Records
---
Amino acid sequence: MTTHYDILGIEKDATKDDIKKAYRSKVMKAHPDRGGDEEEFKRIQKAYDILRDPEKRTEYDWGQGKSYNPRAGYTRGRRSTTNKAAFTVDDLKTMWEEKLRKTDSWDTGEYDYSDEYDYDIFDDDNYYKTRKRKNKTTRITVAVNLSETMTETSKTISVKTDYGNEYDPIEIKIPRGVEDESEVVYRGVGDNTYPDVKRGDLIVKFVLVNDTNFILDPAENSDVHVNLITADKISMFDAILGTELFIKDIANKTYKLKIPAGTQSNTAFKMKGLGLYLPGSNARGDLSVIVNVTIPQLDDLSKEHQELILNSRKKG
């Protein structure tokens, strides 16, 4: 059975950077605008969407048969002392998530349990000491289309407010030039399990999604990815003689691009300043236009054209 790891060509212990690098390499080759297979493109996108998200990746790995025992280190009625200090707050969080996953209350939101308990590894009984109750930080992931980063936009999202099935519609502002996998904190709109105390915060991770006609440049070697790639087609005759293309950038503005005579298929032309905005800046990245030359079928050509091509071949 082909796994998402197989599709991206990575190992199961691949890091976040490994996943991103493999995705950008694969998606470039499979992009339909570059002559790739559309179904393969969709499989790559789906694999990346799951593996880049820690929660989805964990759920996927469990579904692939990885062993998981939420009661490891326990005996009935009392925790075993044969493995002292091995049980951590992360283990407690995992157990809570497993419990919630088996009910209707599970969603993509994530609660931060890290400050729920005091844990002393030198306590022989490894007891947890509860602190004063407080509402927790909720974490969610929001997908943003590349074109949506060109202006400050707003989105209304549903945020789980407690451990049950209560959701609140929350309007969040998405800053212009938001980075892929960047996080923004929204104060006081998160968990509200305890209404009598201060409401928790909401942390939103933004994940950029490739546009229909634009993708992030996988070859860009920087911490902030703002360069884009698009593709267009020209005829064999335009490639030989040269032509002009009218290119729409991701902000839907039209620009003229001169194609010189003798252009080869799969040639990239860089258009400066037509990429995404740098965060907090008016500067933009670049747009690379990949030109593909279409070769007509012989039957589609007139007899005059056919004779002209045959004569040209004889002379060449």
---
Amino acid sequence: MKQLRCWLCALAAILLCGCARFAPVLDAHYIPAAASPIIVASRLSLTQTFTPRCSGTLRQIDLPIARFSYHGPDQPLHLRVSRVRGSIPIQAQITTSVVASASIAPADVPTDLEWVSFKFREGHLSAGQRYAIWLSTEAENEYMWAGELDLRRDGAPFGEYPDGGAFDLGSSASRSPDDPTPKSEWGYIYCDNTSVRSAGAAADLGFRVYIVPERR
């Protein structure tokens, strides 16, 4: 009986260690110190690029988001993760390089800014590869995604994530007067009297990426 108990304990330890090896871990992330929301609607999509530190299977992405309580959105919110070449996303590129996608219903998005989880069943991320978290919807009424948007004239902090940045696309995209990027392409978010990206990344949206690291 004693030997049986020892054997069962050993088996339990092996199983627990195995489960721990396959548990998702927090990889790339940016948590805004003072969040400023920016809208996501049919006329405006947002993306935040990031670079994972480990290779593995994507399991979850958390975003600080909300929906407007008055005349709220009636269409789902879509999140896609795409590979990116270079520092700025190109629309034709990220639409054809999606590695994972998920959607949530309007009722599952709070009316106050909270971290909301998007779950994934598959999708491989490679360490050192740049990816884009692309958030969009067909809804005319807005969702919100919070970040640090370089509102320096208001004394707000600007984004400091070193391995990516925030971009917008659409008819409501806010661009610097000296930014020639068409609104049909992704461009640097502009929230001040000068181009926020002229001297490097200054706007970042909040995110947390969880992966199951590859076994070595």
